[in-house]
Write a structure and sequence with these properties.
single chain; mainly alpha; Ferritin; about 0% strand
Amino acid sequence: MLKQEFNEILDFAVAREQEAVEFYRELQKEAKFSDQKVMLQELEAMEMGHIVVIESIRKGGVKPEDIQRTPNLMISEYLTADPETLDMSYQNILIKAMKREEASFKLYSEMSVKFPDEQISTLFRRLAADEAKHKLIFEKLYDDWMSAGN
């Protein structure tokens, strides 16, 4: 794999994370309560942290042992709501976030099998694993919220 290809993939991943940052910034404008804004700011900061992780991959590369397995609670897969039509309740913000992370996970997973180059495949598997971790965070928050009787 050429260094240029590696960097182009990372540029793509950074752009996706930047879109997520903008997504949460836009949602902050719609938030009706200060608690919602605070949570959305935290989500924005988390996405900015993802950019830092990707840039560290750019500097240090990626190895198969860097890929961690993450449990999948499968909550977002069972939710059928269209995230684009949801209001700004806490539950719906979590659904939007879960669905976004799920879509990123699926994209990177699919890309990992489309490239025969082992390094590129490993890179996409690492990016998918990171998205799975992010999805798990939102699934746990959602599960905790639902378990509390909401």
